[in-house]
Fold this sequence. Notes:
Blueprint: E1 5-10, E2 13-18, H1 28-42, E3 49-54, H2 80-91, E4 97-101, E5 104-106, H3 108-113, E6 118-121, E7 126-128, H4 142-150, H5 152-161, E8 164-166, H6 167-173, E9 178-179, H7 185-197, H8 201-212, H9 215-233, H10 237-247
Parallel strand pairs: 2-3, 3-4, 4-6, 5-7, 6-9
Antiparallel strand pairs: 1-2, 7-8
Amino acid sequence: MREHIAVTTTDHVATIVIDRPPHNHVNAALIGALADVLEELDGDMACRTIVLATAGRVFCGGADLTGDKPLANEEGESETPALYRNAVRLFAAKKPIVAAVQGAAVGAGLGLALIADFRVAAPEARFSANFVTLGFHAGFGITHTLPRVVGEQKASLMLLTGRRVKGEEALAFGLVDEIAPLDGLRAEAETLAREIAANAPLGVQATRATLRGDLAQAVAKRTDHERAQQDILMATADFREGIRAVGERRPGRFVGA
Length: 257
């Protein structure tokens, strides 16, 4: 999956662009490749801050849940354990990250946006923790990371309704730090990243480590719980109906079984 990730560094800012058309869906291999890149940048003295961006209209459509065995590899084995192990590696990265969100950040795509310290979004951005509309439990550590950013009440609203939160509303929620026009989004994210990079790098990294505390360990613990709940719920009729409903662009007809 490394071929889907490009990295350029200018003025101490590394810009990572994920390009996996059409929806930048994530899987264990892509998240592992991204974690490898972040770990390499941790050891690169030329990099002080990171911009995380994606190509196309969609920031990240989450995991690809199409097919007879969603979240499974070619051998039919669940990819979720490896996906979440690699997700924890993202949260362990040492350098500040600014995400540039141009469109939909859905499910695990929202989780990907939440690895960043800051999010700059276009008005066209949409954030959705849509797991309940699919009939299963949130993952990617979102039940820990989303309340940490927007508070318990707003996180509950997003997680229990599955609603899409638009860019301006996300700014009011505190989920987004800045709004920028779509055609200037990447530049605005890089401006914020350069503002951080202008400071003493060791001081920035030490302060960030203090602010984030045991975030990676907390995400690891929470993903263990999330995965157990997902495994239970993915065996239900409601989950199968949720996948069909999303594919057919209609509300789900859930029965609680």
